[in-house]
Amino acid sequence: FAAGGGGAQKSRIWTEDAFSILPATDTIGDRTINALFENGTMRDEKGTASTALNTSEYIKPGVHFLDVVTLKDVTADELRYVIGNILLTSRYGAVSSRIGRMENQILGVFGGIAELPSSLELVQGVYENLTHSPTLLEHPLDSNAVITATQQVISSWINKRGISVQLSKTELTELIADVDQHWSESDRESFLKRLNQSYETFRKVPATAESKKRKNKGKETTSETES
Description:
Blueprint: E1 13-15, E2 19-20, H1 24-27, E3 28-34, E4 53-59, E5 65-66, E6 69-71, H2 76-88, H3 96-99, E7 110-112, H4 119-131, H5 143-154, E8 163-166, H6 169-182, H7 188-197, H8 209-226
Antiparallel strand pairs: 1-6, 2-5, 3-4, 7-8
Helix pairs in contact: 2-6, 4-5
């Protein structure tokens, strides 16, 4: 909602932590680097290189993370805005914003009167689905196998917790195409302007000093009259 100019409306985007399918021992590696001096570099004031070693963890390339994002009472343009941002975002966090990249994919869209199952529940279902395949679960996982397993798990959500709408693969493809069109160079400006204008009724116009003065005078006059 902050993108629309702010206001008193509550957030309508619920996010959770994303979880990897494989355990951390399989997806995290260590790299050894020279320890830094107090000046933040690997050389001291005399130019001597650091001989001390330090290790830091990193996520190996090709790790798959699954996440569920729930949108509450959004308009069509807000849906396009959120999905567009998810698809366009490739960096997360302080460290990954400099050295790491991710690619987001939308694997399913649901609707109903209740919140979707959690990200952890999704990951557990996908892990159990993949363990039934003859292929060993080892890093890196095959992306097509992960997508297939995920879609099989979420296909059963139509009967869970008040979920009543599930887009088919064709409908999902058409939705993503619609989002891409609105975020295209030709349509992006008009789309964002239209979205911005939809928040006009929620915005509070800040009172000027003159209007505050007139308001205070009105209160004083009313008080004197009542006396």
